[in-house]
Amino acid sequence: MGTSDGRVHRGRVRSWLVDDGWGVVESADFADPIWVHYSMLEGFGPGEFRKLDVGDEVELTVEHAEQDEFRLRGLWVRPVR
């Protein structure tokens, strides 16, 4: 398992695969893209479908982890509204 410094970063959604429930976020704070799973999304109402759209701005915490071909994984992700 990776480690996180607990800092909240900002990023933008580069891609989102609705059927698979995951996507990729890019942040100026990191050289590598960040893998994000829908289960880590916050800020949605009860029963509201949790997904992101390409171009959405998000706040997130990040850990270093091996997830598929990605080296970073989002732990807590919330759209900036």
UniProtKB/TrEMBL annotation:
It comes from the Bacteria. This is CspA family cold shock protein.
